[in-house]
Amino acid sequence: MTIDPTGVDQRYLDAIADADPYPYWYEDADEPDSNPTLVRTESCDLCVVGGGYTGLWTAIIAKERDPSRDVVLIDAHEVGSAASGRNGGFMESSLTHGVANGQARFGDELEILEQLGLDNLDESERPIERYGIDCDYERTGVIDVATDRHPPSYLDEMRDDYGQLRELGQHVEWLDAEQMRAQVHSPTYTGGLWRKDRAALVDPARLVWGLKAAAESLGVRIYEDTKALSVERDGVGVRVPTPLGSVRAGKVALGTNAFKPLLKRIGHYIAPVYDYCMVTEPLTPEQKASVGWANRQGLSDIPNQFHYYRLTEDDRILWGGYDAVYFWGGKVSSELESRPQSWATLSRHFFETFPQLEDVKFTHAWGGAIDTSSRFCVFWGRAMSGRVAYALGYTGLGVASSRFGAAVMLDLLDGRRSVATETEFVRSKPLPFPPEPFRFAGIQATRWSLDHEDRTGKRNAWLRTLDRLGLGFDS
């Protein structure tokens, strides 16, 4: 066995040596043409800033609710070029980043939030059918997986989740080690929780492109390579200047994800964290048979530093997660989308999980920024006398919950009361992150402590302090 100076077995490095450093999802002939840049002043009823899932859902729902509403959407690059086109394609029903986090933070509202999440997943599925969006949608559910590499207490915590979901009347199945390996075979598995109706899988880029086409079919005007420079009061409305033009709007919806917020107040609530993933070459029939996976569920293991993985439409394995990297000052840059040391770590973990796939190579490897909040789930707010609203902080689970975020943001802009807007979940905000250098030091200390807990099962003094402050990291 040859060991690289980085400490990684050479065969794990060989597996990623020829991987293209960009998202596998972009390897598609159906990528739409770019839209023009805004080079004049446009006027509209609603300006949507951000062409990811949140922005596109906002534009679509706004037009569906009121077809006469004039909507303009602008994006600094191309629609779907950031997190919405770079994720793993897991459409989770949970709005609270899992039932345990929801119980800890919104225990009195958990039942209604779980139902709102399931309703939202249904409401995300219907437009896919209505607008004919070809995005390889599969509602196969997700299995949370326990492995022998982590403390037995993690398996007990997963049993608690199973019991709570059963009490809420949800369709879940407990899998012991043998049953888990019958679903997907890895010698590391010790149990699983199959959340059958709570998640779906999609091709995330094709979904975002389909939403773009749906928005345009409803009359939304979309401008790309059009960066919003600020939001300013403009009489009874709002003005959004751009490098070559501007948008004058009655109201503005902000879906800027991990990028620098246009409202300074938002910056205290989010920290951009980079996540990395890879995709294998298509599995041969023999390789596929060696892992089983006949039901094509998404999988996610359960430690703090977790992996998520799934099959693509052409039977590749997407494998991502574990490393969640915060860079000094909350830097967001295309150069940070490449991190070979994270890919090397992921490669090692992949082959430890699936040793029977020792000859498989990776064809694509990439990264992207996640808009992390201290409560791990979306939050909302308004500014400029209610003319501007925002939704962000999804912390990696925004593929489905972004639709909910968009709908609630429109409720807030329009003064529309709903079941959701009456919840503390919508009314409250996460605790803010501290300024630098305390933010960087705190996040690094937290990452070290989470790794320590994953190895020992013990939550140290730092994590217990965060728990008491309402900043507990548990996923």
Layout of helices and strands, plus pairs?
Elements: H1 10-16, E1 41-49, H2 53-65, E2 71-74, E3 90-92, H3 99-106, H4 110-130, E4 142-147, H5 152-167, E5 172-176, H6 177-183, E6 189-195, E7 199-201, H7 204-217, E8 221-223, E9 232-234, E10 237-242, E11 245-254, E12 270-280, H8 285-291, E13 298-301, E14 307-311, E15 317-325, H9 340-353, E16 362-373, E17 379-383, E18 388-392, H10 398-414, H11 424-427, H12 438-456, H13 461-469
Parallel strand pairs: 1-2, 1-11, 2-8, 4-13, 11-18
Antiparallel strand pairs: 3-7, 4-6, 5-6, 9-10, 10-11, 12-15, 12-16, 13-14, 14-15, 17-18
- State the domain count: 3
Q: Superfamily at the CATH H level of the largest domain?
A: FAD/NAD(P)-binding domain
State the helicity in percent bands. Answer: 25-40%
Oligomeric status: single chain
Strand content: 15-25%
Let me know the largest β-sheet: 8 strands, mixed
Number of helices: 13
Short description:
With 475 residues, this protein is of the alpha/beta class. The chain has helices spanning 10-16, 53-65, 99-106, 110-130, 152-167, 177-183, 204-217, 285-291, 340-353, 398-414, 424-427, 438-456, 461-469, and strands at 41-49, 71-74, 90-92, 142-147, 172-176, 189-195, 199-201, 221-223, 232-234, 237-242, 245-254, 270-280, 298-301, 307-311, 317-325, 362-373, 379-383, 388-392. 33% of the residues lie in helices and 23% in strands.
